[in-house]
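Fold it.
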Amino acid sequence: MLTLFIYIFAALFSVINPLGAVPIFVGLTQDDSKAERNRISLWTAINVFIILMISYFIGEYVLNFFGISIDALRIAGGLIIVNSGFALLTGNFSKRRGVNKKVADDAMHRNDIALSPLAIPMLAGPGSISLLIALYQEHPDFSQKAICCLAILTVALSIFLILKSAHYLSKILGASGIVAISRIIGFIVIAIGIQYIISAIVNVLKFQL
């Protein structure tokens, strides 16, 4: 069970990559007080947790409604995850997550940015949602689902702690340090996406044979 928890946590944390959101969070909250930044960090984590939990438990029924197979989801989700990984490697993370200049300018005039653009689409994006739907199918036992929910909660807690410390991390690591870590994570994310695509293709070929 510990191995499953570590696997799910590592995969979900890598795909979401809250460290990559640090520079954007710092930019959007630079004029806010420490208490306000802590509040935004907390509600961003709560929103991400709610979105991921809903996706985890409801995603299967959405697939059935639209007649989408789990293998098709793995391939589509794998492509999105690989794309996110390449974005981390090339430094285009914010653009690939839907946070362009127009969105950033709009966020600067919002009273609350915890839900949008931070939780959606910055953190809880298509890659993490498709990953969770696939995990729901792969681990049907109640105990396994409980482990997955615990991993989601732990990721949400990690998001809160990272965003709460974002301004401190930005000073300690600097832009180059965050980019270096993001590129390492990006490589892992690409591997996860490719693995999901390969698994889906193998399952399709087995079914055909």
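The chain has a mean pLDDT of 85.
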